[in-house]
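Troubleshooting entry. Yesterday's outputs looked truncated, so today I'm pasting the complete records for two proteins to confirm everything comes through intact. If either block looks cut off, that's the bug. Protein one:
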Amino acid sequence: MTLPDENGPEAGAAYNADGAEGDTLEAALAVAQAEAQQAREQQLRAFAELENFRKRSLRDIEQARKYALEKFAGELIGVKDSLEMALAAQGGQAGSAVLAGVEATLKLLGASFEKAGITEVVPTGETFNPEFHEAMVAQPSADLPPNSVLQVIQKGYLLNGRLLRPARVIVSREP
């Protein structure tokens, strides 16, 4: 039995006495709602993936900007070492034009290192840290506790907190 409806005979079809047409519509509605929910979840996943990609790209660009000088800085460290050895070899002969030039060059190079975020690792007296130091020799020492840096053979360097070259050191051990 169909109830009368002012919209025509099709509009009242949902009210069949056995309810078969109503069940079909409810099932179709449930399927449509499930599909809509699935589409919404896919949209949210795509949005989250896009947002993660954007953040990862910004992080990669920042890392590239921060560490772009790594290889070049590694090459300049050797130049600085050579200039420091030349200065040490002069033995303090004041008035030498070459000595003054080497000192001026070292100051400029040091200022450039500072601007680029390159810092020296000179750990004399500190506890040995294998992340930043390379032990060359272990010597007995009564002055410092074991695993302390007695002497720096070669300075280490960091670029914005990242190790460029470990400091080569002599480490203390028990006498």
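Protein two, checking that the full record survives here as well:
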Amino acid sequence: MPENRENRVAQLTWDAVAERISAGAAAILPIGAGAKEHGLHLPMNTDLIQAEWAADVIATEFDALIWPVLTYGYYPAFVRYAGSLSLSEATFRSVLADLIGGLQAQKVRKILVVNTGISTIPPAEAVVKAVVPSGQAHHLRLYDGPRLRSTRKELSEQSYGSHADEMETSSMLALAPQLVRMQRAQASPDKGPFPGPLEPDDASSPAYSPSGSYGDPTLATPEKGERLIAAMRLDMIDMARDALQPGS
């Protein structure tokens, strides 16, 4: 994966950041869990990896500044699995509001909140609308682009899924194949639509998933991943371009 060092705030000095802000650079604030289970075959920082990648895509295309990934968020569906942590929704909203407020105070022209989660979408959307009604901040949802939706529909062989499944595993096979342990991938029991908080131990639960996946990651391939990543890249560039338009 590429690492855009010149655009990463964590690797710059404060005066270099000040110069970039004064020149009109947009801010990218990525959201991606650093400690959230992703089955037996993907690392717990899978969302963080995807957030870093998406931020690099946008920063490279638009010369934007990338702030460090917000690695803790509202992820209540996964806390029954060891290591997975979640903030309360209220705390997550408060933290995000404070970070956006800090960027506003430094007179950043545009703020792009790049979100790799699902449960984080409603609270992040609410914060962006409440804190910055002027449209200074924009909420970009990694999995919500039209090209990605179309590509997933075309490629998917699983009958259900949304977490550490065929699609997410394929994407990781393209982004960070060295971290994927396909020999450990396990399909979850088919319980239909996403049943809510997943359950690792109670086989009678409609949310039972002993592996932590929801879907069938055994169907994942690098070729599917390359196509999914290409679709996400174009979607993210389009979303960012729309957000950075004057008056948007």
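Both blocks look complete. Sanity check on protein two: The beta strands are 27-31, 65-66, 111-115, 137-141.
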